[in-house]
Amino acid sequence: MVNNITIMTRPFTISLFFICLSTATLGYAQNRRNLKQLDTLLAKAYDLGVFKGNLLVAEKGKIIYQKTIGWTDATEQTRLTADYRLHIGSIAKEFNAVAIMILKEQGKLSLDDHVAKYLPELPGWAERIKIRNLLQYTSGVPQSVWRNTKGDADNLNNLKVVTTLDFEPGTKYAYNNNDVFLQRRIIERISGMSYESFVQEKMFIPCGITHAVFNPGETVELVAKSYNDQKKQDNMTYEIAGWPALNLLEFYKWSEVLNSFRLISPAATRELCIAFSGDNQTGLGHGTMEGNKLVKHSHDGTAKNYQALLTSDAAKGITVILMTNNKQNNLGTINRSVFSILAGKPYANLKRSFINDFQAQFENLTGQQTIALYNQTKSDFSDKYAFAEEGTLNEVGYYFLNKKKVADAISVFTLNTRLFPNSGNMYDSLGEAYYVQGDKSKALENYVIALKLDPTLDSAKKMVAELKKI
């Protein structure tokens, strides 16, 4: 029940008249029922403790739904409103990507320029990395040890002592914040401005984004603090700078800036949509151009316990924005439910995250013990968690893999292939774990199965080709 809370709707400069007179093809009565279902979706999500934050839905350039539900910090004493600014995680990487293209269109750089042209103090490897590689996350620059990094100057010094790349630039994809870091330093060298000043003065302010704040500290007003389910609040420090917090409406403005090509041309936007391969991310996350129209754009971001998701689908005429300061790893599920509701279709019931609720225990459990916990929880609380989704155990497997507990990851991934035997993605994950373990034979065996089940899996294609050469 939500009788003890208020789901707040911020007065918006575009009248709520649009809610009633939306141009939805489903018609007036159906549209009102759909919008009411969005209220129900959010209320249930709040009751279950799986969503606190903002939801905005726009149709054909007009906001038809906007709600905020939640709290400004871990004390849960002050209600969140849409005026509060939240970090949007990796979606902020769009700003440096667009800034690079602005400079390109001004003739101040080429995407085929090498990093060394602008950052000559870096070692010789900078002569081999093109700006294009930074935008496509194919530079080969190693990740920094972020937990030991104390700001931009420290990270630049870290890179000065890097002697070798992880791979030859342009040959592999590796999502890496150092690619973003180097883009921002190049923007500064060319413009003679700090990265934050360039974005504010050349991009945000001209587009009416006037309340965004970069790298906000603990005392900045109207910035929501992120926290977990144990009411532990995150600090407001980040290893490298350049991360803005935006409020809901200005986040939506940014989406419209991209869709209308206000800052860069369709040709430049098209270049930002070109991925290294398959579904690899680019500077815009994922984007699809048809002619001179950005027909699809999606990007998700996480920073500590902040999460955000932007989905713009021109074919449907719909843009959906979700922002939260209480990460539950479920914005994708909520987003799909929103699109189903708008289409008048059944939508998924929201569930709690198994990994969120039990991750603290995994540290002291083996893979087999974690499987026992999973099975017991599934028996006792079958309706509470998303046991019917393959991603539930897959997240657990990657938790162990990231912790270098490879044998435990293999145990979990193996079970998941049995639970979802028709999922190529599950075998792809198991293949990855065997590859990390060094068992190339088992890795190849599972990658082949993955590719047979899902021929579109580019990661499996590459690994099969690589392993067959050995």
Count of alpha/pi helices? 17
What share of residues are in beta strands?
A: 5-15%
CATH domain fold name of the domain at 354-469: Serine Threonine Protein Phosphatase 5, Tetratricopeptide repeat
Mean pLDDT: 91
Radius of gyration over all CA atoms, rounded: 23 Å
Which quaternary structure do these chains form? single chain
**Would you list the SSEs in sequence order as H and E?**
HHEEEHHHHHEEHHEEEEHHHHHHHH
| Class by alpha and beta content | alpha+beta
Highest CATH level, the class of the domain at 354-469:
Mainly Alpha
Main sheet record: 6 strands, antiparallel
The helical percent reads 40-55%
Task: Assign the CATH architecture of the domain at 354-469.
Answer: Alpha Horseshoe
Features:
six-stranded antiparallel β-sheet; alpha+beta; globular; Beta-lactam-related; 470 residues; three-stranded antiparallel β-sheet; Serine Threonine Protein Phosphatase 5, Tetratricopeptide repeat; 11% strand; Beta-lactamase; 9 strands
